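Protein: Replicative DNA helicase
Species: Treponema ruminis
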Amino acid sequence: MEKENEITEIAKTESGFCTSINEALNATLDCIEKKAKKRDMSETLQTGFGNLDFHKGELIILGAWPYIGKSTFAISLIKQIAVDNKNAVGLIIPGNFDNSQVSERMISMCSYIPIEKIHNAKLEDSDIKKIHDAATKIYDSPLYFMNTPNCSLIDIKIAIESMVKKKAKLIVIEGFEFLEELVDSEPEWYRASIESILNNLKALAMEFDVPIMIVMDLPRPEDACEPRLTDFKKYMIIPRIADKVLFINRYRNKDNFICQEAKLIIAKNNNGSTGNIALLYQIRTGLFLDRARDLEAV
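Structure follows.
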């Protein structure tokens, strides 16, 4: 009996030991009301692709099988946000993707001139004018680069801090596997290194109150028709840590050399719904478009 009295006293005196539903409900309602009031303060960033929004402090994974177009989708996304909507974006490139490649691809997407023509300089006078018009549009866009091969987490933190000071609403990291911590990691510690890096990047997203999107390769299984969370296999820690996991899939049509059907798969979303967004892929420019909105542009 004495023991029961002790337990009762603890329940009475320890704050939070026993909570009623009305207390929990009041706290939840307060949280909802605060979020509703903050909605006018740009808590979300519209991507321009369906109903997909990015939230402050999110860690986002964008994955795809090899040669599907994850990097060009990332550039299409940056174009939509930074060039078309004038929201600042920071692009961090630890790998072998350089600034000129991004600029050329962006010009191709904005001018609708095939990237091959730009590479080979097989241009007509009308093409030159379109390129200049596209460059003028891109020139004033709030897009910032950090291109440092095999950069470290410390380098990334410094870059993010600088980009956020320039009002960056999104940070994109292209070439995750080239980060110094992964390049130098021993095979037996590789998984632990990935986990540590992702946790640190998630902490940076929350510290700087900005979404961070990591672009990475996804192993292609033999039996799959489209990418899925289980494709991460022994690195399932990746989707567990991420707030959003996005996949790109493209359906190659050998009879169509202009445009192909594609799909953006929202496989995990802690701040919204999952599902698919129909896309169109312009083969000659690498531009991904929202099928429902941009069908006439193809």
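Remarks: The longest strand covers residues 259-269.
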